[in-house]
């Protein structure tokens, strides 16, 4: 009888790929985790308990068949493991790097609940797909038959690209429009290279371009081309713009020089560090932390990206202000730990009330305490009277989250229905809006969310759109 390849969580401890030393990794923008070796990936995959009801799969937005590809990895069937992984996820190597597994699949692993520590699902997922690329198992996209229908996708982020991938595989003619010069959205310009090296994203962009997806870059809808013109040109439109309007801060001195938006700061850094672009605001020091006392305001994943980027740019000091405590921060605990290892100081239970200097010199800070729960059940932060102090700062980065731009106004489409939050009204499972032939996916529907949810929305929308196109074709053929 063959030896049981799985259920080894009792005898094999959890192990992550080796993490580069903080003093070394904080000086560059390369990814901080090494790759699993084949034996180590198989060993860690063998810890899976092969649950009858896999909570990891249930809590993955894409419902990836995690126990199946862990089993295949543990038994050395890596090409099959990749095929199973790719069946439900358009970009598994990206999700393996940037998904908050501690809040999703790994956070709901049954062996974690039993005290044996979770399976390292994300690291194995990354290993499987990187191995697939290296061995030529990732095949070009070749539709079995070309279709005449044309779909325009506004936004080259993960939601738009996931939809483009599925539609092109079905033979649909796809054009993607984006305001930036490179496709990928936040994958390219928002997430730093130390979490997601850019050749990983560019490789997928190239795959789509080689498959016949037409990319129209540096294209601003409402300026370079109207939304009405796109609707006239294409059989259907998918809006996948994401949410890029930064939430702002008030208070005395909020307009001082040296107070910048996280998206501007990260975009400049990614251009310079990962693509070698020349960015005037970086060269001038406006979006460069070198030699400065940096204060980042916020506690989400964007704030973690900013503090860790500032360290790599050579900041004199980096502090993160967050109005709640560590246990209540929205960002990844793993990212927080990485940031602390690299020299970031977290000031928990603090909130800015103003700024000093025409060019910022300090943040005026109130200390906070957690009071009664709010409507969401989280304890509301309250100011401690008389606790005010000054936090010296030469550069303040606002990482307070993102909101939708006013698309009905920007695109001169008052009939485009939006919610009271400014997100587009669309069916969650299909992306259909009230406008005929117009669909919407990702953050512009959900509000600021995760990359994995955008991929899920893009895939679901493509499936619904194909169904609608097939229905139209059937009617036309009668």
Automatic annotation (TrEMBL):
<dbReference type="InterPro" id="IPR009051">
    <property type="entry name" value="Helical_ferredxn"/>
</dbReference>
<dbReference type="GO" id="GO:0051539">
    <property type="term" value="F:4 iron, 4 sulfur cluster binding"/>
</dbReference>
<dbReference type="InterPro" id="IPR023753">
    <property type="entry name" value="FAD/NAD-binding_dom"/>
</dbReference>
<keyword id="KW-0479">Metal-binding</keyword>
<keyword id="KW-0004">4Fe-4S</keyword>
<dbReference type="Pfam" id="PF14691">
    <property type="entry name" value="Fer4_20"/>
</dbReference>
<dbReference type="InterPro" id="IPR036188">
    <property type="entry name" value="FAD/NAD-bd_sf"/>
</dbReference>
<keyword id="KW-0411">Iron-sulfur</keyword>
<dbReference type="InterPro" id="IPR006006">
    <property type="entry name" value="GltD-like"/>
</dbReference>
<feature type="domain" description="FAD/NAD(P)-binding">
    <location>
        <begin position="151"/>
        <end position="458"/>
    </location>
</feature>
<dbReference type="GO" id="GO:0046872">
    <property type="term" value="F:metal ion binding"/>
</dbReference>
<keyword id="KW-0560">Oxidoreductase</keyword>
<protein>
    <submittedName>
        <fullName>Glutamate synthase [NADPH] small chain</fullName>
        <ecNumber>1.4.1.13</ecNumber>
    </submittedName>
</protein>
<feature type="domain" description="Dihydroprymidine dehydrogenase">
    <location>
        <begin position="25"/>
        <end position="136"/>
    </location>
</feature>
<dbReference type="GO" id="GO:0004355">
    <property type="term" value="F:glutamate synthase (NADPH) activity"/>
</dbReference>
<dbReference type="InterPro" id="IPR028261">
    <property type="entry name" value="DPD_II"/>
</dbReference>
<keyword id="KW-0408">Iron</keyword>
<dbReference type="Pfam" id="PF07992">
    <property type="entry name" value="Pyr_redox_2"/>
</dbReference>
